[in-house]
Every structure is written in structure tokens, then in C-alpha cells.
Design a protein that fits this description.
The chain is an alpha/beta fold. The protein folds into 2 domains: about 25-245, Rossmann fold; about 250-310, Alpha-Beta Plaits (2-Layer Sandwich). Helix content is about 30%, strand content about 25%. It is built from 11 helices and 15 strands. Helix 3 crosses helix 4 (about 135-145) and helix 5 (about 160-170) packs parallel to helix 6. Bound molecules: adenosine-5'-triphosphate. Adenosine-5'-triphosphate binds next to strand 2 and helix 1. It comes from Yinghuangia aomiensis.
Length: about 325
């Protein structure tokens, strides 16, 4: 039995790591080795729930594009399996790929053709597309990405953001159950990035599952319901963005001239990893509410100069889980 898919994450608290009937992508032990010793993707178990905006996050060289190429049946895994929309890739590519819109390696259009002509060329190349309804498909795709007004302009006159949107329009010439976008905001200015993010949100709101790779942490936080974090070809973690953020407990920093007394109070409250610093004390906040900890310190005559918590961003999660900075190049 299938259930209708929602445009948002499943119930908060459920993990995305368990495949079920509503998973759009499931990989098991997926690996790709280039040559003898370059293990680009290493034993990947990925689950993308239907209706998610799924962020595939990792620094450059962490294996994102290689994974996407395997999911799209463009290259064969060395070992493991990849199932997309219920079909095992690459064998099921013929049945699966018409339901998938993909924008990999940036948009490729002819600058001397208009946006509309570029779409017409691509639509004509699709032997399953009925020429009689071509104009309607193109109009709808242009409207979907907000390019109706400039559809008759030459693509070379488009801004980078408009070119990227034309690329997404190409992927939307037919209804898609899954949209795969590899670094869709690469090279865009902040305005172009905002436009693409808004477009991704509206596509998701219409029920399309979006699989989006990015090396930009804040992009994933802004647009995704779920994320998987890659490092050096391996999956570090996956889940809803909220789960990933809260997987890293906040680190509390208290600025105080009474560091010794503060450390005793924090330890009595049960905070872990209490350590005094040059100008105060640090500890893991754990499940305690920051305001209660602060009140306890003040009650015990600790003079509090500053009181901050860190560690609720995806970047903190990445650093905590891998012990690396995010900008690693493998
Ligand atoms: N065709 C290839 N032959 C050999 N090595 C490759 C090939 N393609 C990728 N690699 C290597 O595999 C690793 C993963 O590359 P991949 O492009 O999948 O990472 P990525 O996360 O997509 O990074 P980027 O964002 O820079 O594209 C890198 O070390 C890369 O150099």
C-alpha cells in the first residue's frame, strides 16, 4: 500500500535512516573505487524519504558527485546496491530515469538560442514526448522557474542564476518524482542563491522529492528537511536537519573571575567535561536548560561576566563527528 507523500519531513523524532515503502533512494554498502586505491565512496547506506528536501553535504572531494553518478546509473558501483524509486540501478535506469530530473555538472545550453528554443531542443530529443503538447510543456516549465518573461531572450544574455533556473526548467519538462541537483547554487551571487533556494522550496511544496548536493552548510540548513553528511567517501551521519543539529550537545562557556567555584557548581549539576579556562569555565550543557544553569551559578555567588552556548549548527555537528574542519580536501 502506498501513502500520499508529504512535502515536509516525517514526524519529528523519526529517523531517516530506516528505509520503508516511502523511501525514494536507498543504498546499501554502496562503494566506488577508482583505480587501485582511490576509494571515492566507501560503504554508503543512504535513505532518502519521499517528500524530503535531502541535503547531501560534504566538503569538496568527499564523494558526492561519484554517489550521484551511481544513483543516476552513469557509473557502476564497485560493490553495494543503489535503489532509486524502487528500481535497482543501473539496471533499472530505463524505467527509473524518466521519473527523475537531474542537473549534474551545471546547465549546458546554447547561448545563441533563446531559453524557449533550448527547452524545445531538449524536449524534441525526448522520444517519449508528444510534439503536439510541446509548447504547453515549455510554457509550464518556464513559468515554474520564473523565466516566462525572458523565455524569448537568448540564453547568453541570462545571468548565471537564470541559466541555472533554465537548467532546472529542462529537468522539469515532464513530471518528476525526484529532482537531483548537484551543487545548484555553485557560482551564484547571493541573490541568485536565494532565487534557487526559493525555487527548491516551492518544488518541494508541490510534492517533488529533491536531492541536493552542496558543500555549503548554511545552504543545507536553510533549505533542507533532511541531510546526510559525507567525509572522505564515508557517511558520517544522516537524519532530519533538526536531529543532526541536536546530535551535538551545546558546549557552554561561562566567563567569570570565579572559575573554580563555577566548575564545582557545574559538576554538581551533572554537566560533563567541565574545564576551567583562562577567563572562566566550559562544560557540555547536556539536556539542561541554559537559563537554569545560569540561575544556579548566580545563586552560588558565581559572578557571571558572559554566558554563551555553542554547538547547534550543522557545522558544529560535522566538526564534532569527524574531528575535522569542514574545509578538508581528501
Ligand atoms: N573519474 C575519476 N577517476 C579517479 N578519481 C576520481 C574520479 N572522479 C572522482 N575521483 C576522486 O574521488 C574522490 C571523490 O570525488 P567526488 O567528485 O565524488 O567528490 P565531491 O564530493 O563531489 O567533490 P566536488 O564537490 O569537488 O565535486 C575525489 O578524491 C576525486 O579526486
Amino acid at each position: 500500500m502506498t501513502t500520499s507523500t508529504a512535502a515536509v519531513a516525517p514526524t519529528p523524532g523519526t529517523t531517516a535512516a530506516q528505509p520503508d515503502g516511502a523511501s525514494v533512494v536507498v543504498t546499501r554498502g554502496l562503494s566506488k573505487r577508482y583505480g587501485r586505491d582511490r576509494l571515492a565512496v566507501d560503504g554508503l547506506d543512504l535513505v532518502v524519504p519521499a517528500g524530503a528536501v535531502f541535503g547531501f553535504l560534504g566538503p569538496n572531494g568527499s564523494g558526492k558527485t561519484t554517489t550521484i553518478r551511481m544513483l543516476m546509473g552513469l557509473i557502476k558501483p564497485t560493490s553495494g546496491t543503489a535503489t532509486v524509486l524502487g528500481g535497482a540501478m543501473p539496471g533499472a535506469a530505463g524505467a527509473v530515469l524518466p521519473r527523475v530530473g537531474a542537473l549534474i555538472e551545471g546547465p549546458a545550453h546554447y547561448g545563441f538560442l533563446t531559453g524557449r528554443e533550448n527547452l524545445a531542443r531538449l524536449d524534441a530529443a525526448d522520444r517519449t514526448a508528444d510534439p503536439a503538447t510541446r509548447k504547453r510543456r515549455i510554457d509550464e516549465a518556464l513559468a515554474r522557474v520564473g523565466l516566462s518573461a525572458v523565455g524569448d531572450r537568448k540564453a547568453r544574455a541570462y545571468s548565471l542564476g537564470m541559466k541555472q533556473r533554465l537548467g532546472i526548467a529542462s529537468a522539469l519538462l515532464r513530471p518528476r518524482d525526484l529532482l537531483v541537483l548537484d551543487e545548484p547554487t555553485n557560482g551564484l551571487d547571493p541573490q541568485g542563491m536565494r532565487e534557487i533556494r526559493a525555487l527548491i522550496r516551492s518544488l518541494a511544496a508541490d510534492g517533488t522529492t529533491v536531492f541536493l548536493s552542496s558543500h555549503l552548510l548554511d545552504e543545507i540548513e536553510q533549505v533542507c528537511t533532511h541531510a546526510a553528511i559525507m567525509s572522505r567517501g564515508r557517511l558520517v551521519t544522516q537524519g532530519t536537519v533538526d536531529e543532526l543539529r541536536s546530535a551535538v550537545r551545546g558546549r557552554l562557556r561561562v566567563g567569570t573571575p570565579d572559575a573554580g567555584r563555577a566548575a564545582v557548581v557545574l559538576a554538581e549539576l551533572g554537566l560533563a567535561h567541565v574545564a576551567t579556562t583562562g577567563d572562566g569555565v566550559e562544560a557540555d550543557l547536556g539536556d539542561l536548560a541554559a537559563e537554569d544553569v545560569c540561575a544556579a551559578l548566580v545563586r552560588r555567588d558565581v559572578r557571571v561576566r558572559s554566558f554563551t552556548t555553542h554547538g547547534d549548527s550543522l557545522e558544529d555537528a560535522f566538526v564534532a563527528l569527524t574531528g575535522e574542519g569542514f574545509d578538508v580536501e581528501s
